[in-house]
């Protein structure tokens, strides 16, 4: 299950919902997100932006 430091969900009406430090699963019917606030299921997904900051390995 992917992990994102920041995840932005763009809805069909162009509004955005932002989450921090989450795990998520993309489905045909939308996205399911697990965060410190609990579990979220969003079905009106137009696009997602997930970012993960990783430490540089030497």
Please give a structural write-up.
The chain has 58 residues and is mainly β. The chain has one domain (3-48). The protein has strands at residues 3-11, 16-27, 30-35, 38-42, 45-51. The chain has a five-stranded antiparallel sheet, with no helix packed on it.
Compact summary:
With 58 residues, the protein is mostly beta strands. The chain is 0% helix and 67% strand. The protein is built from no helices and 5 strands.
Q: Descriptors for this entry?
A:
five-stranded antiparallel β-sheet; single chain; mainly beta; 58 residues
H/E element string?
Answer: EEEEE
How many β-strand stretches? 5
Classify the secondary structure makeup into a structural class. Answer: mainly beta
Number of domains: 1
Oligomer: single chain
Whole-angstrom Rg = 12 Å
**Mean pLDDT figure:** 92
User: Could you name the ranges where pLDDT drops below 50 across 5 or more consecutive residues?
Assistant: none
Helix content: under 10%
Strand order of the largest sheet: 4-3-2-1-5
Main sheet: strands, sense, barrel: 5 strands, antiparallel
End-to-end Cα distance: 26 Å
Indicate the proportion of strand residues: over 45%
Note the overall shape: globular
Give me the number of helical elements: 0
């Amino acid at each position: 299950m992917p992990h994102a430091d920041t995840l932005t969900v763009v809805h069909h009406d162009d509004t955005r919902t932002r989450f921090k430090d989450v795990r998520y699963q993309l489905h045909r019917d939308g996205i399911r997100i697990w965060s410190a606030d609990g579990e979220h299921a969003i079905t009106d997904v137009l696009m997602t932006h997930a970012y993960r900051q990783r430490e540089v390995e030497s």
